Amino acid sequence: MKATPQARRFSLFAIVALLMLVGFGQSFHRHDAYDVPWFPGTEKSIWSIEATIQFFARGDSVSVNLRRPGDQNGFAILDESGASQGYGLSFANLDGQPTAQWSVREARGRQTLYYRAEVLQREGGDYQEIAPPQVISQSWEEPYATAVKAVLDEAFSLSADSFSLTRQLISQFRDNNRAQNEQLLLDAVGEPNLTNLLANMLQSRDIPATTVYGLLLEDGRRRQSLKPLLRVWSEDRSEIFPLDFNAAESNLPLLLWQPTRGFVLDVTGGSGSDLSFAMIRSGITNYGQVANALSEDSDWLGFSIHALPIEEQAVFKTILLLPIGALVVCLLRILVGTNFRHVHARIDRAGTDRNQPRHRAGRVFADSRGRPYDQKLPFSPEPAARRTNFGRHYHRDSDYRRIQRVQLSIWPD
Fold first, then answer.
1. Which domain covers residue 12, as residue numbers?
2. What pLDDT, in 10s, does the model give residues 84-136?
């Protein structure tokens, strides 16, 4: 049964609609999962972060472990490297956390190690929530045990869940809101250890909490240190509470360097260790420069030509130029062919009058040797023999020599 024109037209529109739907779906998936921008020229921020480790070696074997950041909400690690004279460097996972390890058989005196990371700041990311750490039971001696119980009872009565309880505790330890019990506990542990004190108090009520460390990112800053943060879990969610951030620091991007309980820097065989950070921001508009790193954990929907090796990228880029070349050829044939048809029409109109000058007629006749005739021919070829096609030979039997070639030349009027 032969398909009707309406059925063929419907099939064509259905195929076009299906292809457009698949294209829009893939574009949305790449934008949502891999942060591919919708429009060209969209700028992304890449942070170059350098950590400097300094310590004094005692002349024995030295082992240095530094926690390094991983992919997290808002950030993706593009590249990592390290610099150390005479040290071996490896990137491994210790206790489930990414760690940079330096080691040497013997070292003495002041030592300096460097770790560098290229971090892409993105608009989200689908990363698995870190499991809460095990709750460690806490106990205090008197009179601190009584003070802890009084502070927790007051905050518990004014809260509804773990997160609101944490906010109430932080509020009670503010400078302008401290009572005698809060001041007693703070004097015992010191102001810098307030985060650890709050984490221990929450764990005494079976709430998973710990001190984590983050790095505030600000362009051009040097000699920066990690900020202690309070992280609290409630079921399968967690929330981070900064304690001593001012208004300006609250608006800066925060990179979690150590997202759970554990050490940040561990030096074996040395003393007097110090860890500082320097950072610089650079803008990038070419997604291909970051696609290689982002495609390592991507699925087939996120496939990109930039994920291929360099040699294969060059081959595919050449292949992708073929449709463009075919389009250019089609346009040239349409445009140039139209101009030739207008030229032929002018020649036909001008060639019917034999008294027309040759530059107006647009025709120059030549003999078999290619020598042009300067004089006008005393005849006008018949229309059928005058021009059968553009560039064809013209023939006429007469007393004149056989004209074998006609060279067309268009002269302005």
1. 1-34
2. 888 999 998 888 889 999 999 998 899 999 999 988 888 766 567 788 888 88
CA dist 366 and 361 (Å) reads 15
Q: How far apart are CA 257 and CA 31, in angstroms?
A: 26
Whether residue 183 is found in the same domain as residue 274:
yes
Last residue of a domain, which of 298, 323, 344?
Answer: 298
pTM: 0.64
Q: Within 10 A of 114 (CB to CB), how many other CB atoms are there?
A: 15
Partners of 48 in the β-ladder: 118, 280
Question: pLDDT tens, 242-278?
Answer: 988 877 788 888 999 999 888 899 999 999 999 999 9
Q: Determine if the peptide bond prior to 143 is cis (ω within 30°).
A: yes
Backbone angles phi, psi at 19, to 5 degrees: -65, -40
- Name the DSSP class of 402: P
* Sign (positive or negative) of CA dihedral 344, 349, 353, 355: negative
